[in-house]
Amino acid sequence: MLLCIMMSENAIRDLNILPKSKNLEPKETPNMVNGGVAEVEYVESEKLDDFEDVDKSLKMLLTGLDSKDWVLLCETLNNVRRFSIYHKEAIKDILERVITLIVKSLKNPRSAVCKTGIMTSADIFKAFGNHIIEFLDPLLVQLLLKSSQDKRFVCEAAEKALIALTTFVSAFLLLPKLQPYLKNRNPRVRAKASMCFSRSVPQLGVEEMKAYGMEKLIEIGVSQLSDQLPESREAARALILELQTAYEKYYVLATCEEEPQYSWEQFCELNLSN
């Protein structure tokens, strides 16, 4: 199978505009609502209540997600989270459009909108798992970007969303999506992608590992050992140790008896010398 999926033009463009210096996002100015200052509360998933009127909320969903009113937009993003938790079938048919608008929210200069959109992404991953894979590319780009930037509370939320992604989406489907970012020109993006890649590989079954290619996985791990950032190098070491364990415990036993049996060291030398 193909081990790399080409990034779209939009993805490449988004990566090329990663800020090179700190704190380039414009400062937020408060909105006045009913004579007071609007504030956004970041509600954890388990504390989100169900709707009082599901149908009404569904009818207003796409309009709210496309609103220029940032307070309404945050409220609607939280409604997407509620749908994901309580009524995911209700938005299944419009999931592609919903994800497109979530991506738009992640590009919003307001940190409140951006963080709420990131939290929404995490709940989408938990609810829909593998069903989001065909819509994932632009969302993955933004999460890698946001997890690589300097606003701590946004960065931490993006890292949690990436953990949800690697937890609830099949590693076999996700690894080809992550692989191109391991060679991205920005070292921080490479580091975040390496961490995701390393977390995903242990979820592969033996047959999936064989189908993906143990040799390719080893090559990827070794290529990251000399990367610029320590996060990349640590992720690579964890990946290689995981591959060694899998090879010694499962992979050799799953190969055909007619095939040569190599030790881990022999297998690495054989495949890394090519």
Descriptive report:
Its main location: cytoplasm. HEAT repeats lie at residues 174-212. It comes from Lactuca virosa. The protein is mostly helical. It has helices spanning 9-16, 54-59, 61-65, 70-86, 95-106, 111-128, 136-146, 152-168, 171-178, 187-200, 206-212, 214-224, 230-254, 264-272, and strands at residues 32-33, 36-37.
What is the topological layout?
Elements: H1 9-16, E1 32-33, E2 36-37, H2 54-59, H3 61-65, H4 70-86, H5 95-106, H6 111-128, H7 136-146, H8 152-168, H9 171-178, H10 187-200, H11 206-212, H12 214-224, H13 230-254, H14 264-272
Task: Identify the notable features of this structure and list them briefly.
274 residues, mainly alpha, two-stranded antiparallel sheet, 14 helices
How many angstroms separate the termini?
20 Å
Record field, number of beta strands: 2
Biggest sheet, spatial arrangement of strands:
1-2
Task: Give the overall average pLDDT.
Answer: 86
The main sheet comes to: 2 strands, antiparallel
Number of helices: 14
Q: Note the run of SSEs as H and E.
A: HEEHHHHHHHHHHHHH
Short description, anyone?
By secondary structure, the chain is mostly helical. It has 14 helices and 2 strands.
